[in-house]
């Protein structure tokens, strides 16, 4: 990669930091170190792409943080273990994975799992933004019946439709926020 500044010498990748589920900051340092300074690129990407971009040394750390955030969201939403597995796209026989994630172990490097994680955390964020003064409502929303989903709960929609259902729930909340 060439330096973004005037010297046009080679630039060196320094680090990547996740801003949220869609944005990563990639820090590039110029090798010349004479006139040039560190520059940052804000990259719009999926959660999986952002974690992959962080480099091997940081991937496990970010995946562990994701696991912790997801388990906390599932607890706040009061989602049963079987549904947690379905939300993550995991088989019912994979209960051990949930136990590992609860202990703070990193999420698997499965792209589908990382994509689902990003969408689930975006749903959580959207609910907190939609109901800033009523956290109980924000946390109950995922397990409450909703006419927009044919009187099913958002969790039921995701369990029934899989990744498509997850996108349906996320886009419903994105539209409600006007984003």
Automatic annotation (TrEMBL):
<dbReference type="GO" id="GO:0003677">
    <property type="term" value="F:DNA binding"/>
</dbReference>
<feature type="domain" description="Antitoxin Xre-like helix-turn-helix">
    <location>
        <begin position="58"/>
        <end position="121"/>
    </location>
</feature>
<dbReference type="Pfam" id="PF09722">
    <property type="entry name" value="Xre_MbcA_ParS_C"/>
</dbReference>
<dbReference type="InterPro" id="IPR024467">
    <property type="entry name" value="Xre/MbcA/ParS-like_toxin-bd"/>
</dbReference>
<dbReference type="Pfam" id="PF20432">
    <property type="entry name" value="Xre-like-HTH"/>
</dbReference>
<feature type="domain" description="Antitoxin Xre/MbcA/ParS-like toxin-binding">
    <location>
        <begin position="127"/>
        <end position="175"/>
    </location>
</feature>
<dbReference type="InterPro" id="IPR046847">
    <property type="entry name" value="Xre-like_HTH"/>
</dbReference>
<protein>
    <submittedName>
        <fullName>Uncharacterized protein</fullName>
    </submittedName>
</protein>
